[in-house]
Write a structure and sequence with these properties.
The chain has 12 helices and no strands. By secondary structure, it is mainly α. The radius of gyration is 26 Å and the shape is extended. The two termini are 39 Å apart.
């Protein structure tokens, strides 16, 4: 005779149901409500952080901002605790242990984001006299919570991993170009503008700014230096085109693979 399957207790059923709702394992109205509510709260938090940076608005609505932050931290903390608690159900029916699922969540990208996004608030409670303004930027990391409900971020990461060889080649080319062009601009312009190019690291800084923005905020005074700057700007356009093409192709392929699944 086949042994009878033990009936799960009320506690186990509640935990399993919590896992299904939090992770969207069963697409019903409850999991949809949690998804929409958390997403809207994250968007509201990002807007609030931006508005809070305006001194006039911050001073006028100081108490409202604080109350909303407390509400958000409570919600995100409850979400984090429920996910840690219910994630034990992920592998429990396939022979795994409860802590296997919990450990996977806690050390996952989303688990770290969920934890770090609430840390500044609790640190301010534990250390009321400390200057923790730098840690407030972690509140902006709450925006990454939205990627749990949208595959765009995962698709981008998967695309980069799939084309890691192409990216490695592009980064290697960028590194060689940085050494070459920064050394040349230092040799050519260093004697003419010692205050601008006092060393090779300063020239490397100029190269990086030129690659990123197309202009290094500095004008060469020699003819050869002008030609070198033009070549550097052309190189920046070429590298941007190469990386853009690699990312676009890999991302499109990843989206097609996801849709085919």
């Amino acid at each position: 005779m086949t042994p009878a399957v033990p009936t799960p207790s009320m506690y186990q059923r509640i935990k399993r149901r919590t896992y299904e709702i939090m992770e969207g394992e069963v697409p019903d109205k409850y999991s949809h409500f949690v998804e929409v509510f958390v997403a809207l709260l994250v968007v509201a938090n990002v807007i609030g952080i931006i508005l809070e940076s305006v001194p006039e608005i911050h001073d006028a609505y100081l108490h409202e901002f604080h109350a909303f932050d407390v509400f958000s931290v409570v919600v995100f903390s409850v979400e984090f605790v429920l996910r840690v608690w219910s994630y034990s159900e992920k592998y429990i029916h396939s022979g795994g242990t409860a802590w296997q699922g919990r450990k996977e969540y806690v050390f996952s990208f989303y688990g770290i984001i969920d934890f770090v996004s609430t840390v500044p608030f609790y640190l301010q409670l534990l250390l009321p006299g400390a200057d923790l303004r730098v840690l407030r930027m972690f509140r902006l990391m709450r925006i990454f919570k939205l990627s749990r409900y949208n595959s765009a971020f995962e698709d981008m990461v998967a695309a980069v991993k799939a084309e890691k060889d192409s990216f490695s080649s592009a980064v290697f080319l960028l590194f060689i170009s940085c050494l070459l062009f920064s050394s040349l601009i230092y040799i050519i312009e260093g004697h003419e503008q010692p205050e601008v190019f006092p060393s090779s690291p300063a020239a490397m800084h100029w190269f990086v700014i030129t690659i990123i923005s197309g202009w290094g905020n500095l004008d060469p005074v020699t003819f050869v230096g002008t030609i070198l700057v033009i070549f550097t700007q052309i190189l920046s356009i070429a590298l941007a085109a190469i990386l853009t093409g690699v990312v676009a192709t890999a991302y499109t392929a990843q989206v097609e693979r996801r849709e085919a699944m």
